[in-house]
Design the sequence.
């Protein structure tokens, strides 16, 4: 039964005291959504209504809610050591976590800078790459190249690296030294080319960008292996390999933002494994602790980490009060071991393929354009005419309407004006997908009747 004392917190007098993410509170108070409890792949709001979580919260709760192993690890750590003095040292769980990450990460990504969120992992990385180049004889390398339609966080430099204009306009001018190139958006290629005849032009043309910008000034190239904010934009298999070659050629550090794609989401432990490319730095979070505690990291290749191992003054000049927090690290250790030992990446790959089949079966509805993604990170672009790829008029906002209707019907998904996406916990089964697809189809039909 729901706790009736919580109901008062869904009223305007209380909600006026809080600001939510990307949410106009004047609208939120009209239909407030407060979650009270969760278990497995389901959660319940304060009124007791049940929902299927088709998004793992926000691509985070990879092992599902109420996982006994993670809960026990957090409880034990809270009773033993909830915090350590970060200016003076660390704690055993932080060192154990860094060691585990070195064991499971691709290639020689063997050193972890632990932080609290994906935004902070990327912020730390931007500082780290600039300091690295200064300490290795290339002080002029400071620029960060990223892509349009990307999202790398909400903090200052992370926002500057992001490629979604409306999320930056209010705060411009953004940080100096950030510039952008086009993403590998094959369904609507900005270069008006067609894969594979294009020979992955979107990757090859980055050479021209680098040369015209002057490679002596570029410190790093950061990409999401699969881009969430742009609509689960998934590159051709050759794309990231070409970027790796370009970065090697011009002494540019390749950074993978795997805050979403890491820890099994794409059907491998990391998207770097999925695409068979090892970056110089891999930023991760979300599924790292499965959302049980704030935790993220920047994983660094050995030759880069070595540049910070030396005399005083060469250390990484960076700090966070809660970085390497013992409780968060305990949650991370338990979550990662659960993912590895239960072979959840393999489950993501198998059930993800089943999800794609079920989405393909919705094509007779006449609005399914592109279905893309890997593992349990799958997006659907919605179009007025699948044959011509004609999008719906901007004012229709079909994806928003479908997403809101799905939530009303008991299914949480990611939605945007022109696309929807799924990213359920990695413990999801085919039977769970059947339930989710039934709600999605019902929701789509209900929305289409209103057009």
Sequence:
């Amino acid at each position: 039964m729901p706790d009736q004392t919580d109901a008062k917190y869904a009223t305007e007098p209380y909600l006026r005291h809080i600001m939510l993410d990307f949410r106009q509170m004047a609208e939120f108070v009209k239909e407030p959504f407060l979650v009270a409890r969760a278990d497995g792949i389901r959660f319940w709001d304060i009124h007791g209504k049940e929902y299927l979580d088709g998004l793992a919260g926000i691509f985070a709760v990879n092992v599902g809610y109420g996982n006994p192993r993670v809960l026990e690890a957090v409880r034990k750590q809270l009773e033993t050591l909830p915090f350590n003095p970060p200016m003076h040292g660390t704690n055993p769980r932080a060192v154990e976590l860094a060691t585990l990450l070195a064991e499971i990460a691709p290639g020689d990504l063997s050193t972890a800078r632990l932080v609290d969120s994906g935004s902070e992992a990327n912020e730390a990385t931007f500082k780290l790459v600039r300091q690295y180049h200064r300490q290795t004889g290339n002080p002029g390398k400071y620029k960060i190249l990223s892509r349009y339609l990307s999202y790398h966080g909400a903090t200052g430099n992370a926002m500057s690296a992001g490629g979604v204009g409306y999320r930056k306009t209010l705060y411009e001018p953004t940080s100096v030294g950030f510039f952008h190139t086009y993403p590998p958006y094959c369904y609507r290629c900005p270069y008006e080319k067609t894969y594979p005849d294009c020979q992955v032009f979107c990757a090859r043309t980055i050479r021209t960008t680098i040369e015209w910008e002057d490679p002596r000034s570029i410190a790093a190239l950061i990409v999401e292996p699969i881009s969430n904010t742009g609509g689960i934009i998934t590159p051709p298999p050759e794309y990231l390999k070409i970027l790796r070659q370009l970065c090697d050629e011009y002494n540019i550090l390749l950074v993978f933002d795997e805050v979403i794609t890491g820890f099994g989401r794409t059907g491998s432990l990391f998207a770097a494994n999925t695409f068979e490319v090892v970056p110089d730095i891999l930023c991760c979070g979300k599924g790292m602790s499965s959302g049980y505690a704030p935790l993220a990291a920047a994983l660094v290749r050995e030759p880069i980490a070595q540049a910070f191992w030396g005399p005083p003054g060469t250390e990484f000049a960076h700090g966070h009060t809660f970085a390497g927090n013992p409780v968060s690290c305990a949650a991370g250790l338990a979550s990662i071991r659960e993912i590895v030992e239960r072979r959840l990446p393999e489950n993501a790959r198998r059930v993800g393929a089943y999800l794609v089949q079920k989405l393909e079966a919705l094509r007779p509805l006449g609005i399914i354009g592109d279905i893309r993604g890997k593992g349990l990170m799958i997006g659907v672009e919605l179009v007025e005419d699948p044959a011509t790829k004609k999008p719906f008029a901007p004012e229709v906002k079909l994806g928003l309407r479908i997403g809101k209707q799905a939530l009303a019907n008991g299914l949480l998904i990611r939605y945007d004006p022109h696309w929807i996406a799924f990213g359920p916990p990695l413990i999801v089964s085919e039977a769970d997908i059947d339930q989710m697809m039934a709600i999605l189809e019902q929701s789509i039909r209900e929305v289409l009747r209103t057009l």
